[in-house]
Amino acid sequence: MAGGTASSGGTAADTYKNARPWLLLPAWAFLGVFVLAPVFMMLVYSFLTKEFRGGVIWEFSTAAYDQFFFNRGLFGDEPPTIEWTYIAIFWRSIWQAATATLMALLIGFPTAYFIATRPEKLRPMWVFLITIPYWVNLLIRTVSMKFMLRDNGPINDFLVGTGLINEPITIINTNFAVQLGLFYSYLPFMVLPIYASVERYNFSLSEAAADLYASKWVTLRRILLPAVKPGVVAGCILVFVPSLGSFLAPDLLGGAKNFMIGSLIEEQFKGNAGNWPFGAAASMVLLTMVLILLLIFARQQARAQKGTG
Amino acid sequence: MSDSRKIAIDVRGAVKRYGDFTALNTVSLSIYDNEFFTLLGPSGCGKTTLLRMIAGFEEVTEGAIFLFGDEIADLPPNKRPVNTVFQNYALFPQMTVLDNVAFGLEMRGQSRPESRRAAGEMLELVQLSDFASRRPAQLSGGQQQRVALARALAPKPKVLLLDEPLSALDLKLRKAMQMELKHLQRETGITFIFVTHDQEEALTMSDRIAVMSAGALQQLGAARDIYERPHNMFVADFIGETNLLEVTVREVRDGRAICSLGGGHILSGKSDQEVRIGARVHISVRPERLFMSDAPTDAEGLRGRVRENIFAGTDITTLVDLDEGPNLVVRTSNSDRGNKRIFEPGSAVYVNMEQEAARLLMD
């Protein structure tokens, strides 16, 4: 773990640590106006009544949440049963985001390890290469991915052309296409934090493990992974959270069947067909879920830190 | 040091190249079983490279390394029955002290309780039993050093490799650890290969020392041997302090070379090597083998003037400017004050050398 050094106080870092809280003022102001206020607005909207052409009527109502969680029949007069439609969309979103995160981890970890073990002078170049695709707008990248994955797109053409397959495989409009899209969108957020922690890793620990008869696999599992865990966890959060609420990849690559929570929310605010309170309520449910996940994680980290002393 | 002793490590013609750079140039040496052996040299001399080749962290470009007769150069580190104490200790930060020490035993297939019990015994040996459940970061540098030592000794390696293990400790602690290491080596009977750039440390601890420079072995021998009979200028200069006088060989008589210094002075020195008449060579003599007098004691006394006396606890160092030739350093032990005189700065003196102490060096 990164921490654990016993400082005896009186260092320059200590002197500077608690000084100048006003340095954070601009950040707090920004967060207040552009993050906290909008979130609060969403919270308020989710408890208002919907206006049919978009917008809200300022009248308290729990209808949005009711619609999200309960089914009261076509005319709303039957006894409530659990409404599975949106919970299913939520569940699918979590599944898609988790799969994309796992893919990013499986490809991102070796990549990060590779970069961190290059000669020091070459590392910035490798990091730079990782970021190059992300200079292109996300929408354009996702659209080009759609072209690549089409039934008569380059990938299928190649596979059919080489005789590996006889007929094009359907990739587009499947769960897998969405997972690929999400994975591709957020891969650098996995690579960079892992790279940062592997770069700080003391490789003589791996040598010490090998010296003490540990195989490469045991060294990875018992020495390297625990040491770079903070980077791995940060990478997973940075990929999972935006994947969960993403709507570009599911919209463009997943088609109507593979709807995710981000698309559901997006639709409620688009055009005249939307339902703002419902969109706001879905956002609040999403936000609550992410916060709970982060809290569980922070708890665990704190416990692990305590163990390290 | 008879050759009938068992050889623990046999390095034969070992070469290590990184691209165009040769880190180790055809080194051959044998290290005996149960020996405290030191690889000594300045940084970049190849001593750590050689140690890492024995441990298996560096591949051998050319040559072979044998461990008790078995070729090990192609074995990965985790298949070699040798253990290392690393310079920065490399203790596993997320494990307790006890788990650190038990790690090697566990990897060798011992059960968890069994390896923990043996690790506990090792901690007793290095007097850290009370710290078994701490994390490495909670220990002082000296304690971490002892944990690293216990961890490397726990699997009972055939050879223990120590890569400048004391360099991060302060002087007092280092002296204490030197004694402790020497003691541990005797007690365990394990061959220690110790890497250091500190010649004093090497002289204190080692049975034998290999002096290295520029990727090559310069001299191999017992500590006393290397100090008193250096083979070349590098060894004479690197081990301890020495006075070097550039001279020309005039004649060789009874194994002594009679040489001339500037100004008609005659000096003689012993040499193990063949000497050519007329060659420019150096005579090396240790400061403590010089003494001063106000009249010449023999024909070889060098005339000069005392510049400065430096008091350093156990001895006094005198700098003498010779009338002809370089400046000399003369060291007089405080316990020797009865026989050897100290002169005030500015006094004219003769500097004399003990006959056996002057060594002729070719390069």
Automatic annotation (TrEMBL), chain A:
User: Could you tell me the Gene Ontology terms of the biological process aspect for this record?
Assistant: transmembrane transport
Q: Could you list the residue ranges that cross the membrane?
A: 27-48, 94-116, 122-140, 231-249, 276-298
Q: Which GO terms describe its cellular component?
A: plasma membrane
Q: Which InterPro entries match?
A: MetI-like (IPR000515), MetI-like_sf (IPR035906)
The record's annotation in SUPFAM superfamilies points to: MetI-like
Q: Which Pfam families match?
A: BPD_transp_1 (PF00528)
| Record membrane topology | Multi-pass membrane protein
Q: Which domain of life is it from?
A: Bacteria
State the UniProt keywords alphabetically.
Cell membrane, Membrane, Transmembrane, Transmembrane helix, Transport
Q: Where in the cell is it found?
A: Cell membrane
- ABC transmembrane type-1 domain location is 90-297
- Indicate the principal place this protein occupies in or around the cell: membrane
Q: Which family does it belong to?
A: Belongs to the binding-protein-dependent transport system permease family. CysTW subfamily.
The name this protein carries in UniProt is: Spermidine/putrescine transport system permease protein PotB
Which source organism? Tritonibacter horizontis
Lineage of source species: Bacteria, Pseudomonadati, Pseudomonadota, Alphaproteobacteria, Rhodobacterales
TrEMBL record, chain B:
Q: Which PROSITE patterns match?
A: ABC_TRANSPORTER_1, ABC_TRANSPORTER_2
**Recorded GO CC terms:** ATP-binding cassette (ABC) transporter complex
Q: What is its EC number?
A: 7.6.2.11
Entry keywords, A to Z: ATP-binding, Cell membrane, Hydrolase, Membrane, Nucleotide-binding, Translocase, Transport
Reactions the enzyme catalyzes: ATP + H2O + polyamine-[polyamine-binding protein]Side 1 = ADP + phosphate + polyamineSide 2 + [polyamine-binding protein]Side 1
Q: Gene3D superfamilies attached here?
A: 2.40.50.100, P-loop containing nucleotide triphosphate hydrolases
> Which leading EC class covers this enzyme?
translocase
On subunit structure and binding partners, the annotation says: The complex is composed of two ATP-binding proteins (PotA), two transmembrane proteins (PotB and PotC) and a solute-binding protein (PotD).
Function of this protein? Part of the ABC transporter complex PotABCD involved in spermidine/putrescine import. Responsible for energy coupling to the transport system.
Record-given protein name: Spermidine/putrescine import ATP-binding protein PotA
Q: Which organism is it from?
A: Tritonibacter horizontis
